[in-house]
Amino acid sequence: MWCFLAKKTMSQITKPLILLRTTIDNILEHPIIVYPTIILALIQFLVLEILYFSPRYPLSQFFSPLISHVWSEDFLHYPMDLVLLPKMFYYAQILVYVFGGALLLAMTTHIVATINNNHRPNLKNSLRESARFYIHILFCFILSLILFQIFSSMYASFVNTLFKIKTTGGAMAAFQKTLLWATPYIQFFIGILITTLLIYIVPIIIIEKKKIIGATLLNLKVLLRSFRTSFLVVLIPTLFYLPILVARNNIELLASATLPEIQIFIIVLGVVVTMAIDLIILTTITTHYLFLKENS
Amino acid sequence: MKKLIIFLITLIAAVFILGHLLDREGTYSRERALWNIQHEFQQISKHQELAPVSAVERIIDKYDRFSKRYATSPLAPKAQLLKGEVYLFKKDFAKAREIFRGVSTVYNYNIEVVAQATVLIARSYEQEGDWKEAKDTYDSVVKKYPLTAAGFTVPAYLGYYYLSHGRRREADQAFEDAVMFYQNTANYYPNSPLEYTALRMVSECRLAQKKWQEALKATRTWMFKYPSNAMLFDAIKTINDVCIGHLKEYDCAIDTYQQFLMQNPEHPVRPMLKKIIGNLEELKTKTASNEK
Predict the structure, then answer these.
(1) pTM here?
(2) Interchain CB distance below 8 Å, A78 and B16
(3) CATH number of residue B290's parent domain
């Protein structure tokens, strides 16, 4: 039996934990689902490697003038280059997603949908089908970036307003300090919220062959019916990223206690965990969407 | 797709091997090797009394091997100076000075290295408690190598030294001398990075002297003359600290920022400065109403 859902009942499928467990079982049963994610992770590793070697010969011939001009010459020397590495990799990651990453994730959706329809998945076919909707998938990615910026700016304005309040007591000062410390974690949860708000867009584009606007509207409709489940499906796997976030926020401490190269280890771990999270969320949400469609 | 995965893994492995092979003896690898020795020494030297003698000797040996292996590298004198600092840590001041003098002789063509070695000789006298000899050596650095990276900071350092030893009058005199030195340098090298650094040092000295009006004036000078510099945020922070924290005058900060915006209407910090001006005006009104 190819269909994931046939094995589960209605009450079971709406439970996020059961949904996630089914996803993991199915990924293990059909390793083909993982292929696009592996490729995306490998592309990111290659980019990271190039950036890591950028201050050294022969890549330094191209990168040195660039780094000196944009940042500073200091970042061409050890260990300062490793301080800059996460920043450069972040910008490179955006480019990787724009030029193909989004497409590879859409392929995952297509493969999952094909398996659910009891067909044998074909990678070339999935790539062709996803490529047809590349521009719409790209818009979805840009939309999530814009929304994240808007929410983050709103949060920053809120924090600024709070900081304008003159502190006379210790409680307010402590609250302001905590707020400052918690900023990356709050942004992390803003990210989870935005992912949830847009979560069905890619499956809808691929399965229903809809354009970005139609897909966004249908996404909201689906979300209204199953916000709790969708939110938990995004939240539970994403929480596995929290230890990496903690490590990233304490990177100076970690690097001084160990070696500056710890930055690379954390980036690599971050890519692996992010890819696993994306894969699980996308597979689960596609399965869930197909289930909801079947039962509507 | 399996083929693509295998291709990518091979490519990553190839880039990794090539990257390491091509720079095996390159500058970056040397920098890392030197940094690792420095880091190891830092770990050992955290507690001077508990530092094992053998570990300190091992560091010295590592610096020696580094200097021998990369004798022609620009990092070789740096390794020797760092070795001298290990002897300073061991309180073997005579040996440390011998190393620093040796570096000065061998690398006498490199004025930066010589200045740095001379400053370290002065530091060794200072740590030994011979301030007279230290002061004479510091003065010689200022006289002979005033524009080197090591020599340039010495005039201000002397002020800070006296300040940290509670010798307020001498500190004040040293800072006055330093201001004169930096001001002269700025005048001799107008429109250059040296002028910018000199002007910044003037404002540092004035801040250390707690001469707030002069500090404000000096900071304004470099802020207005070098508006495109990345250190502009430092200027804004200093002006806020001086005007609000010490002079208790909002107007001097507001006027400075308004003048800056008038002179640099298209500057990227414009939105931020406008926001700061707004906030300061708000605070000024609040303070005035509270006082009433």
Answers:
(1) 0.79
(2) no
(3) 1.25.40
Q: Which residues contact A99 (CB under 8 A, 6 or more apart)?
A: none
Domain residues for the domain of B238 are 213-292
Instruction: Enumerate long-range contacts of A46-50, CB under 8 Å, 24 or more apart.
Output: A46/B8, A46/B11, A46/B12, A46/B15, A47/A89, A47/A92, A47/A93, A47/A96, A48/A85, A48/A89, A48/A92, A48/A264, A48/A267, A48/A268, A48/A271, A49/B12, A49/B15, A49/B16, A49/B19, A50/B15
d(CA B129, CA B124): 9
* Cβ neighbours, 10 Å, residue A225: 10
Report yes or no: B149 at the A interface, CB cutoff 8 Å: no
Answer yes or no: is B276 within a domain.
yes
The CA distance from A77 to the nearest CA of chain B, in Å, is 7
- Subunit contact A57:B2, Cβ cutoff 8 A: no
In a domain, B229, yes or no: yes
Q: Per-domain residue ranges for chain A?
A: 29-294
B16 part of contact set with chain A, CB < 8 Å: yes
Domain count, chain B: 1
Q: In this structure, is residue B261 part of a structural domain?
A: yes
CA distance A13 to chain B (A): 32
Show pLDDT as tens, one digit a residue, over chain A (296 residues): 334 555 555 555 558 888 888 889 889 999 899 999 999 999 999 999 999 999 888 888 899 899 988 888 889 988 899 989 999 999 999 999 888 888 888 899 999 999 988 888 888 888 888 888 899 999 998 899 899 889 888 888 887 777 766 555 667 777 777 877 888 888 899 999 999 999 999 999 999 999 999 999 999 999 998 899 999 999 999 999 999 999 988 888 888 888 889 999 999 999 999 999 999 999 999 999 988 888 87
Among chain B residues, the shortest Cα distance to A43 is held by B8
Which structure tokens are listed for B68?
Answer: 């021998």
Helices B111-128 and B75-89 pack at an angle, to 10 degrees, of 0
CA distances from B22 to A177, A290, B26, B71, B128 (A): 47, 52, 8, 20, 46
Is the separation of the CB atoms in A280 and A237 below 8 Å?
A: yes
